[in-house]
Amino acid sequence: MKAASALALSLLTTAAHADISCVADFSAFGQGSMTVEIKPAALEGRFDAVVNGRTTHAGMLPVDETIRPGLNFAVDAYGSEFKQFNSAERSLVHLHRLSEAPSTRDLIKLPFAPADVRRIKTFDLVGKMDKFGGQVLMEAFDERGASLGKVVRRALVATCR
Known about the structure:
Keywords: Signal. The chain has helices spanning 2-16, 80-83, 87-100; strands at residues 20-25, 33-40, 47-51, 54-60, 63-66, 119-124, 136-141, 147-153, 157-159. With 161 residues, the protein is an alpha+beta fold. It has one domain (21-159). The radius of gyration is 17 Å and the shape is globular. The termini are far apart.
């Protein structure tokens, strides 16, 4: 029993410290690709964001937030209901709108259905937030905790491959 517990703890610790890396292709928007790496920082639980080989945000803390079931994707982004959303919910509404808007829906293909997302882990790439959450790497999870995929979001969004 102790050996199984030790193995489980070891696997959790290893997963918590694993590097995340991907390439987000923004070429459909005339912006090229960006290589994003999230690496464990010197301080426990903190990470460094590295974009195209350059550290862009050192020692950041990821944000892990829950998405409420039945989230209103048609909410007014300037209304009082939107102000009550957590940052992950605001970001998810933004992603949904970009994927549905006539001007961007043919260019933006999310690796998940926004309605299936129950948790988002966000890594801030530049240390500066805006109304929709800034430039971030977001990983979406379903209700069982399984990863649904990753996206890099700036003003627009690209699937992380």
